Amino acid sequence: MHPVLAAQHDRALTVLPDDVRHYYAGGAGEQICVAEAEQAWRALRLRPRVLRDVSAVTTATTLLGVPLAAPVLVGPTAAHGLAHPDGERATALGAAAAGSLLVLSTRSSRRLEQVPVGPWWFQAYAMRDRGRTFDLVTRAAAAGAGAVVLTGDVPWLGNRPGATRAGLTRPLEPGEEQDPSAGLETISELAGAGLPILVKGVLRGDDALACLDAGAAGVVVSNHGGRQLDRAVSTAQALPEVAAAVAGRAPVLVDGGIRSGLDVLCALALGADAVLLGRPVLWALADDGAAGVERCLRAVSEDLAHVMGLAGCRSLAEIGPHLIAPA
Fold first, then answer.
1. In 3D, which of 268, 259, 224 has the Cα closest to residue 34?
2. pLDDT in the model for residue 164
3. Considering the domain 3-314 in this protein, what is its CATH number?
4. What number is the average pLDDT over the span 43-53?
5. What is the C-alpha separation between 9 and 280, in angstroms, rounded?
6. Helix, strand, coil proportions of the chain in percent (round to 5)?
7. According to the model, what pLDDT value does residue 170 have?
8. pLDDT tens per residue across span 285-295
9. Which of 13, 23, 127, 239 is the most buried (most CB within 10 A)?
């Protein structure tokens, strides 16, 4: 973990109530997914190139038409108001200041119209009341969202004993209103609001292709932070298969256990176009509000530039599978 993120995490633990800390950090079942997420990235080994002119390294990129300072986004996480009084508004301010992009959760502490600062996308669930889902997506489009991230791995909630023991109430979670019958047709339904749809929760190549064939504009490799199906593969394990299947047809994003620029470099080398940070942003928000979020994102982005140079890469285009040592 990058030292800045580690320090923010430690300080956040001193200010967050126990129930909130357990809610943010906890996972499903035996929490095997949570335990393995970071280690899966750390297990990868790199093959750097030498004697390359890396005097000018850039992390700049464009994602679905949005220019970004680095391929490091803020992933959708619920209830930022539990971490800081300004909630998602502070997160959005920090993301914008860092040249990043916020994916706003349906479970935001604030109305979506109160949050936007800088570029942002909206995360949606397939609810039993599909009209409610479409209404939220339509509101997001009207408020300036650039895309919708449809969470596809929550037909119902995972077994989260830690959150139950912490005494957290169900309103924090998308519970019975989830539609377990939702299928690929949901993609085209939501696309009617006029925004590109990315599907989050993809861990298989065949699922990625099915989503693209159904009209998705991209996929997010994710196991929901280990909060849904415990013992699901880590995102570092799943990413190469998904990226190979997509084969450049659409953006591939990844989240889960990414804690440094080195992790980002590995993700890009395995085929991701960008990464999303979840829990680290919550710790940063609890630590120092918008300034903490900006500091978190800048630390990871600057670390990425540094390790890119050490690996012999001047731009994101020079990062590829050739950097990853065979297992």
1. 224
2. 58
3. 3.20.20.70
4. 97
5. 7
6. 45, 15, 40
7. 42
8. 999 999 999 99
9. 239
pLDDT at position 176 over 80: no
The residue ranking higher by pLDDT, 304 or 132, is 304
**CA–CA dist 182, 136 (Å, integer):** 17
CA–CA gap between residue 294 and residue 15 (Å, rounded): 19
Cα within 13 Å of Cα(304), Cβ side: 28
How big is the chain by its Cα radius of gyration, in Å? 18
Catalytic residue among 80, 224, 306, 322: 224
CA atoms within 13 A on the CB side of 154: 25
Angle between helices 18-25 and 279-311 (to 10 degrees): 50
* Spatial distance between the Cα atoms of 230 and 251, rounded to a whole number of angstroms: 26
Domain chopping of the chain, boundaries: 3-314
Checking if the pLDDT of 84 tops 90, the result is: yes
Phi, psi of 140 (to 5 degrees): -60, -45
pLDDT greater than 50 at residue 99: yes
- Encoded tokens for 244: 């190979």
pLDDT digits (tens, 9 = 90+) for 248-296: 999 999 999 999 999 999 999 999 999 999 999 999 999 999 999 999 9
In sequence order, the 6+-apart residues with CB closer than 8 A to the CB of 1 are 9, 38, 259, 260
Residue 291, amino acid: A
224 in catalytic set: yes
Give a three-class secondary structure readout of 101-149. Answer: CEEECCCCCCCHHHCCCCCEEEEEECECCHHHHHHHHHHHHHCCCCCEE
Considering only 17-26, 73-82, 134-143, 255-264, which range has the smallest mean pLDDT? 17-26
Query: What sign does the CA torsion over 136, 137, 139, 145 have?
Result: positive
Residue 17 identity: P
